[in-house]
UniProtKB/TrEMBL annotation:
Protein name in the entry: DUF218 domain-containing protein
GO-annotated biological processes: Gram-negative-bacterium-type cell wall biogenesis; peptidoglycan metabolic process
Top-rank taxon: Bacteria
Domain annotation DUF218: ranges: 26-186
UniProt GO cellular component terms: plasma membrane
UniProt-listed Pfam families: DUF218 (PF02698)
Length: 196
């Protein structure tokens, strides 16, 4: 996973962007009560977006993602992330919700439509989980969009040579392999489908 995830970008090296594009997939839509946002792994996608906005590095935010594989009747994933941003003080007027996409390919297609229609020829920053950045970036680039990348939501820490880290088995290692394998299968499938 250390070899797969791109290095984090120091905040001081991030320029100013007209639009930050955030893909969903980090919230629990079926958890109740519905008076808050419940996050899964990868919440840094949106918390780092909030930090970038607060530091004046983003002028507008597109949050892309609909129901995905969730059941009808649940709230739209992008709406949940928007509600978090608004609760944290981001003005409603600087957030665009894209509610149709159900996967990474559709996130890219639908976000590209918004960018070309509402924010043509501007400076864009793609914000998504580090393990998911390769596939996301390839999909968005396929739509003819030029952008920079800001990976977030890391599974990895700094490499360690501690005895416990090297010798003692850890359950989370299995989860990381599962996540990595799923991403590799996703990349291969998207390549076959012509999405990237």
């Amino acid at each position: 996973m250390l070899l797969w995830e791109p290095e984090p970008t120091p905040m001081k090296e991030v320029g100013v962007y007209d639009v930050g594009i955030v893909f969903t997939g980090i919230t629990k839509g079926s958890k109740s009560p519905n008076d808050r946002v419940y996050f899964n792994q990868g919440a840094d996608r949106i918390t780092h977006t909030l930090q970038l906005y607060n530091e004046g590095k983003l002028k507008h935010i597109i949050v892309s993602g609909g129901l995905g594989f969730q059941q009808v009747g649940m709230s739209i994933a992008a709406e949940r992330l928007k509600s978090f941003l608004v609760m944290a003080g981001v003005p409603d007027s600087v957030i665009t919700v894209e509610p149709k996409a159900v996967n990474t390919y559709e996130n890219s297609v639908e976000s590209a439509k918004i960018l070309k229609r509402d924010f043509p020829n501007q400076k864009y920053l793609l914000i998504t989980s580090a393990f998911h950045m390769k596939r996301s970036a390839l999909c968005l680039a396929k739509q003819g969009v030029e952008f920079d990348e800001f990976p977030a939501g890391y599974y990895t820490d700094r490499p360690s040579l501690n005895f416990d880290d090297i010798v003692i088995p850890k359950a989370e290692a299995i989860k990381r392999w599962e996540t990595l394998f799923k991403e590799w299968v996703g990349l291969a499938t998207y390549k076959v489908m012509g999405y990237i």
